[in-house]
Known about the structure:
Shape: globular
CATH superfamily: P-loop containing nucleotide triphosphate hydrolases
CATH class: Alpha Beta
Helix content: 25-40%
Number of domains: 1
Order of helices and strands: EHEEEHEEHHHEHH
Bound molecules: adenosine-5'-diphosphate, magnesium ion
Largest sheet: 5 strands, parallel
Strand content: 15-25%
CATH architecture: 3-Layer(aba) Sandwich
Strand order of the largest sheet: 2-5-1-6-7
Number of helices: 7
Amino acid sequence: MQKYALTGTPGTGKTSVSKLLNEKVISLSNYYKKASEGKTKDGEWLVDIGKLNQILETSNSNLFEGNFAHKLDNIDKIIVLRCDPNILKKRLEERGYNKEKVMENIEAEAIGLIFSESIDYVGKNNVIQLDTSNTDVESISNIIGKYLDGKIKVEEEIDYSERILDWY
Ligand SMILES: Nc1ncnc2c1ncn2[C@@H]1O[C@H](COP(=O)(O)OP(=O)(O)O)[C@@H](O)[C@H]1O
Ligand SMILES: [Mg+2]
């Protein structure tokens, strides 16, 4: 069974998209507490990826959704959701993230951190990225479905690094 990771900076739409996919999905956030030794002072779980792997070892799911998903063992393909940092900023503010947490995340998104990490884990032939800034959740999930069925290739060029210049 092929295993897939659906990853991306918080707010890029992983959880929303995963609900529409015709795969056996696990939301990693449901296991953060179990796989963690405690919380940071911002109230985020300090997730131990080794523990998370152990917990998921016996799972019969094939798609793991969350911003650590690309770091799991035995992942064959990684789908990275992307978003224009200026749009992501609004999504994260609506979620109640404080200024510092918003900046940290939109900077990571602007430099494509998770995309490049993903390539390090499984190689560029096994990673795709999709921009969710101006495409609805349903369309994104359709594209992912076709990609996983081997019906289409996905080759999006996404570079938001210049956004950073506007902020400082
Ligand atoms: N493609 C999209 N277009 C517009 N809004 C979206 C899209 N994907 C997600 N959202 C909105 O962004 C917010 C974060 O989505 P969510 O699925 O929780 O992201 P994640 O799981 O990656 O943190 C939600 O309010 C959701 O409705
Ligand atoms: Mg989520």
